[in-house]
Write a structure and sequence with these properties.
Helix content: 40-55%
Oligomer: single chain
CATH class: Alpha Beta
Radius of gyration: 22 Å
Number of domains: 1
Shape: elongated
CATH architecture: Roll
Structural class: alpha+beta
Strand order of the largest sheet: 1-4-3-2
Number of helices: 3
CATH topology: Bacterial Protein-export protein SecB
Order of helices and strands: HEEEEHH
Largest sheet: 4 strands, antiparallel
């Protein structure tokens, strides 16, 4: 009897997983820019760059289980105190995610899809940097799963702090 119940449970889980669908509809560059504010003098400097990279993700529903996910990379490279170049790339994708419960949908949009977009964004950044006259720039891999988890923890902390602050103001 227990074995039959286990088979029914496994069958239900397999049916749920079979109803889940993930598909990449399109990957594209939504926006890109490169600025070299101190050219041509910056090309005469000794090349000892300091790089800063900011990463942001955004997911917006489009229609019927279809979402646009945008990964924004902003890279600023300086030599001493002068900006050598600033590159911003908004790499986007349209993804279909069907049959995922809410607790799985958010990590898919916040980590899984950006993981797919990142190699495309890296290649675009490298191409823009070379076309701007600088040595190739290779961006290191990014752990979007860890970034997503950290973001979720920060949101939870803020939500927990907010009622405590409201209680303090009521007293």
């Amino acid at each position: 009897m227990a074995q039959q119940q286990q088979q029914k449970t496994n069958g239900a889980q397999n049916a749920d997983q079979n109803q889940r669908q993930f598909a990449i509809q399109r990957i594209y560059v939504k926006d890109m820019s490169v600025e070299v504010p101190n050219s041509p003098k910056i090309f005469l400097e000794t090349w000892q760059p300091e790089m800063n990279m900011d990463i942001a993700t955004k997911a917006d529903p489009l229609e019927n289980n279809t979402y646009e996910v945008v990964l924004t990379l902003t890279i600023t490279v300086k030599i001493k105190t002068q900006v050598a170049f600033l590159v911003e790339v908004k790499q986007a994708g349209i993804f279909t995610l069907q049959g995922f419960p809410e607790e799985q949908l958010r990590p898919m949009l916040g980590a899984f899809c950006p993981n797919i977009l990142y190699p495309y964004a890296r290649a675009t950044v490298t191409d823009l940097v070379v076309r701007a006259g600088f040595p190739q720039l290779y961006l290191t891999p990014v752990n979007f799963d860890a970034m997503y988890e950290q973001h979720q923890r920060e949101r939870q902390q803020k939500a927990e702090e907010k009622p405590a602050k409201e209680d303090e103001t009521k007293q």
